[in-house]
Specification:
Length: about 325
């Protein structure tokens, strides 16, 4: 079902909460890195900057995606959010992971003596508390939306990238803080600053893995993913329930936005159904579908003989020459 206004507000809260936390944490990390010479802390500072920029891009994408449909974009601008989600994944990989690995390598090649780690520990503890709060909010909201599905299955099927991107970012941030803390402690314990550089590289590798996973999910959404199988089954059930429908040939769907679905339905009508009766029947089916699945923003129902549908099964979901179609 479509998200309620409350759910959309909660999505924004997740993003704004993560943005506020990352801005404050980023400043503290850079100050601590400058005072102590810690490579992993400097890496964590760049990590927070990248995360802050990502939240800004996602908020921008959400705003642009809400623009109404027009003549140039008859199905709206919802998929613009998917574009910015893909950009976020690229930024995490190119800037977050790239800078972290480079800084770690540079610190190993040219190790710098570390000063007292106390400031680093204080900043790490505060950062962990703030990141943990943001992570808790993201987990709670995503847990509500995933229902009975497993976590990875829910992420793979999710059509709203903002929720799982923040979840991935915050999880990577917490892991990075733990690694940074271990690296700083080990560098002092063994009197070897190169360990701190190795920790920076480890943080970069985690970011690279997260970026690849996010890029994979965002790419699927950008190209176009079908609706949930349960939604497709509901469409098929409603259409096939009408006595005048001999069979439902196919139901093809695509998400044009997280809360918007385009559906193209091919159905074999009984030969006794006249043109006028068919139009009335199609309108009735559309009304039922809209009530059952509010996310259906556009519906095309095409009367088509079953044998013809079989011959054209590889055709696109919405042929430009389709006749006897209706649109919401």
């Amino acid at each position: 079902m479509a998200k309620t206004l409350t759910a959309r507000i909660k999505d924004d809260i997740v993003l704004y909460g993560a943005l506020a936390a990352n801005l404050g944490i980023g400043v503290a990390k850079f100050v601590a890195a400058g005072m102590t010479g810690s490579s992993s802390m400097l890496t964590e500072g760049f990590h927070s900057v990248v995360d802050s920029g990502n939240q800004v891009l996602l908020l921008y994408g959400q705003k642009k995606a809400k623009r109404p449909a027009d003549e140039a974009h008859p199905f709206g601008y919802g998929r613009e959010l998917y574009f910015w989600a893909f950009v976020v994944a690229i930024l995490i990989f190119a800037i977050g992971a790239g800078v972290s690995i480079f800084e770690g390598w540079r610190h190993i090649q040219q190790p710098e003596p570390l000063t007292s780690p106390t400031i680093n520990y204080v900043v790490l503890a505060i950062s962990f508390a703030l990141e943990g709060s943001s992570w808790t909010i993201a987990v709670r909201e995503f847990s509500k939306s995933k229902g009975d599905m497993g976590w990875w299955q829910a992420i793979h099927r999710s059509k709203d990238p903002a929720g799982f991107i923040v979840l991935f970012e915050d999880s990577a941030a917490l892991a990075g803080l733990v690694i940074a803390g271990i690296g700083i402690w080990a560098s002092h314990a063994f009197n070897d600053p190169r360990i701190d550089g190795a920790a920076s590289i480890a943080i970069g590798l985690i970011l690279a893995l997260v970026a690849v996973l996010l890029a994979r999910e965002s790419k699927g959404l950008l190209i176009g993913e079908r609706a949930d199988p349960a939604v497709i089954a509901t469409i098929r059930k409603i259409v096939s329930a009408h006595p005048a429908i001999v069979s439902v040939n196919h139901v093809r769907t695509i998400h044009t936005a997280p809360e918007s679905i385009f559906a193209a339905i091919s159905a074999d009508f009984d030969d006794s159904v006249t043109m006028g009766d068919g139009e009335t029947l199609i309108e009735a089916m559309e009304s039922e579908l809209r009530v059952a699945i509010p996310m259906l923003s556009s519906i095309y129902i095409r009367p088509e003989k079953r044998e013809n549908a079989t011959l054209t099964s590889s055709a696109s979901p919405a042929p430009a020459t389709a006749q006897n179609t209706t649109q919401i």
